[in-house]
Amino acid sequence: MVEHALERTYTPPILKGTGLLEATVLGPVGARVHGTPVPVKGRLGRTVLAALALAGRQPVSVDRLIDALWGERPPATARTQVHIQVSKLRAALDRAGAAAAVVTVPSGYLLDCLADVGEVRRLLRTARAAGDPADAAGLLRSALDRWTGTPLGGVSAHLAGAELPRLDELRICLAEEWIDAEIACGRASRLLPELTALVQAHPLREGLHRRRMLALHRAGRRADALAAFQEARRVLRDELGVDPSRELLALEAEILAVEAPPAVTVVPAQLPPRASGFAGRDAEAATIRAALARRTDAPPLVLVTGMPGIGKTALAVHAGAASVHAYPDGQLYADLRGADARPAAPHEILASFLRALGVPARSVPAGVEERTAEFRSRTAGKRVLVVLDNAATARQIEPLLTAGPGCATIVTSRSVLPEVEPSVRVPLAPLSDEVAATVLANAAGAARLTEGEGTVATVLEACGGVPLALRIAGAQLAAYPKLSVAELAARLSDESRRMRELVAGQRSVRDSLDASFRLLDRDARAAMLALAAIGSPTFTGWPLAAALDVPLPRTDEVLAHLCAMNLLDRAGPGRDGVPRYRMHDLVRAYCRTVGPSLAPPALDRLAGWAVALTRHAHEGVLGLPAGYPVLAETAARLDQDVLGRVVREPLPWLGADVDVLLAVFGLAVRGGLPRPAAALLLVLRAPLVRLDLSDHGARAGARLANVAGADPVVRVTAALVAATARMHRGRYADVVAILTEVPLADVDLALRAEVLTKLGDAYERCRDWHRAITAAREAVVCFRKSGNLAGMSGGHATLAALYRDHLGDLRAARLHGTKALRLADAAGDWKTRAQVRLVVSRTALACGDAAAAAGLAEEARGLSERNGDPIGQTWCLTAEADAHRANGDLPAARRSADRALGLARRIRRPDAESAALLALASIELAAGDRAAARRVAHASLRLQDRFDSPVERVGVEKVLAEIDCQVPSGAGR
């Protein structure tokens, strides 16, 4: 693997939580953390920052800092003042999340940062090592673009006086080497404006005069090159009293020896070579070719867009090359450098195009408007194909568009460029697995992939269908025969090192993404880092509103902008109908290398929002308030309009955002926020069951238990969540084992009552009647003390069922049932009213009133249906079936049982499925078909192995005994 790193003789300790600190000295001195400016006040503070940054992560002694601040006349308190300035700098960085960036070492201080001057020197070393002048030119141009003004702006005169000459010399050396690389690439003419300005700024630098002469000569301006020599001779004689060097004289002689070539008609053919190993994109290529072949009054304009590395240039060149025969008058190509800090200027591109079309360099018009007019005149009546690669804006490409109907233009851009009106838009998505495998095989060699067929899929998954990543991965395998596919797959599957691995020479996925990231504003960069840290597959805007502390409408703007930049995709509407977004895995991996975690204040806000929104949805789903004190302690205070805008429909919203909520839960657990994590899981527990995601709840409960420590609320919540998941799967003995170990005496009444209720249900399923009654009574007391009418109602309903089914006390059952109904109606929430009516229905059936039982069960089912509760509907339908059977209406009983069976299977509830089958067995027995009754009852019994409810098993065995003894099924069973 090839990695570029800053060379250093001193290695600072690994700094956790410093964030990405960038220091700028090639302009106004400043610092940024994750792209956000850090205020460094005062000339002394900026001088200390600059001196440390210039050292390139090497220690700077206090004496050197004194020299930088005061020169040869420091004050008596100089050392103290140095320490004060370092402390102020450290405090400013601390507030920005990079406290550990300033390191105290025995010899002084060092700054662990990415300094722009260090990046310039790295780019210079890399350029000198590059074998391709085009690569070198790009690297050197990138280095020059790091200058943003006069270096060391705002520092002391002493530091500026010492360092400015060195920085100026560095910049001129970079410029000279960049010019040499550009000339070697045949791009001499585009250099002339900048070369002229450099010669004027540095008239005594003979190397610049020589390069200007050479550029003019290579651009075909022989007379101008010779005039430039005469000017250089005059300046050197007048100012320095010396003659031109032998090198300059030799260049003059070379120019004089070359005769001007005769004018020839040149047909430009500037398309780059097709990408080797290109595969797929058949539909997109056909769309482009069809657009280029279409003849209309307006010239075709094709716009190809997509995320960095998705293969826009390769497709444009591939489709353009396939259409060359239709454009015999030439093909023009220009890289508009839209992702660079300094995109190509239209007037430079126009000058290049005009010269390619035969316009002498000296005849190229000066202004953009004149050049555009000349370009359109030269292409009028001709068939010329223009490819404008990597466009930044519509304003950049507009002057470069032809006007003649015989011409055509293909534009590629990372942005969707909504203001452009092309003939056809061609958005590029990641490649399918099949095509991606072909691209990988083309780059690596098909034989290499047969060595690790089982791990090729891992490489493809890590590359995410992005052609640049696939070609780099293939190049690694081709270049390093001893690198196995399995080893490459292992490296790429580690997200933390994926960006470091996807590098091959000058090609890098990180650099490609970094170019787009640098174009974002502060909010957009922060949004990308926050979304990557959360890591949910899809999302809406509310996590950003919380993490960034911005209004919800602002998040819509940010998300739309990131989609326009092709850094996010629209994922379509979620279960709640609200449009959602997603981030590509490679983009997420890149962002996590830039900013791996949320700052503590952002995580606090995010967890608070998640608790508040989930509580609001929980209350909407269940129809009763969530009165746990830990919610009031941890939930953010959100306005009703915010709650209503985010949670439009409670259960669909929970289904759509459950991945986000579980991701926030995970962040809270890892971020040392066990109470907010517990609060979130407490109100997410019941919805997870409704969404058939109780296994997710069980895993989350186990994670919460690992960080609970001695906090009783967190411990009890973790146990309650685990018990809920076990209860949903029919593991009632597990529920008892879990909940009998929790410290109930140390938690609030609401949480205690919840545990006792769940424990009573589990005891009842395990046939431990007396413990079940004791737990239910204690729960009623807790609910009464906390004023929870719904809880009291549920407790009395549980007691009614226990007295009815297991103690045979129908009088006590009716008494508790009556209390439960009264309290449920007073509480008003639908779920309690439905559950209580189901219990009282069973009691009425036990007392022989089948008609009343059927009516109550139907009321309960209606409440469950209207509120989208499929679990409740199954139990209500089973109760209806039993009531109709007892009332002698076997067809109605069969319809209800069949519906219950289908619903139970759809929601994967073996206990509800067993109960529905048991109801059907009783119906078959009542109809006189004992063979069918026995078959269905045994099916019910087999399901008992999937959950551990002894009371349910006894019920099945009782029906089987009735069948075997040929005893008719009684109405009151």
Please outline what is shown here.
This protein is an alpha/beta fold. 62% of the residues lie in helices and 6% in strands. The longest helix is centred in the first third of the chain and has 28 residues, at 157-184.
Task: Report on the architecture of this protein.
This protein is α/β, with parallel strands linked by helices and 973 residues long. It has 45 helices and 15 strands. The strands form five sheets. It has a five-stranded parallel β-sheet with strand order 8-9-10-7-11, with helices on both faces. α15 (394-397) links the parallel β9 (385-391) and β10. α23 crosses α25 and α30 (650-670) runs parallel beside α32 (694-707).
As a percent range, the share of helical residues equals: 55-70%
State the low-pLDDT regions, or none.
1-19, 967-973
- In total, how many beta strands? 15
Shape: elongated
Q: Largest sheet, if any?
A: 5 strands, parallel
Distance between the termini: 75 Å
* Gyration radius, rounded: 38 Å
Q: Give the structural class.
A: alpha/beta
Number of helices: 45
Mean pLDDT: 88
Strand order of the largest sheet: 8-9-10-7-11
Estimate the strand proportion: 5-15%
List the helices and strands and how they pair.
Layout: E1 21-24, E2 30-33, E3 36-38, H1 42-54, H2 62-70, H3 78-95, E4 102-105, E5 108-111, E6 114-115, H4 116-129, H5 133-144, H6 157-184, H7 192-201, H8 206-218, H9 222-240, H10 246-257, H11 282-293, E7 301-305, H12 312-322, E8 331-335, H13 346-356, H14 368-379, E9 385-391, H15 394-397, E10 408-413, E11 424-427, H16 433-444, H17 446-450, H18 453-463, H19 467-479, H20 485-493, H21 495-501, E12 503-504, E13 507-508, H22 509-517, H23 522-534, H24 542-548, H25 552-564, E14 569-573, E15 579-582, H26 585-594, H27 600-622, H28 629-634, H29 640-646, H30 650-670, H31 674-690, H32 694-707, H33 712-728, H34 732-739, H35 749-765, H36 769-786, H37 789-805, H38 810-827, H39 830-846, H40 850-866, H41 870-886, H42 890-906, H43 910-926, H44 930-943, H45 950-964
Parallel strand pairs: 1-6, 7-10, 7-11, 8-9, 9-10
Antiparallel strand pairs: 1-2, 2-3, 4-5, 12-13, 14-15
Helix pairs in contact: 1-2, 1-3, 2-6, 4-5, 5-6, 6-8, 7-8, 8-9, 8-10, 9-10, 11-12, 13-14, 16-18, 16-19, 18-20, 20-21, 21-26, 23-24, 23-25, 23-26, 24-27, 27-30, 27-31, 30-31, 30-32, 31-32, 31-33, 32-33, 33-34, 33-35, 34-35, 35-36, 35-37, 36-37, 37-38, 37-39, 38-39, 39-40, 39-41, 40-41, ...
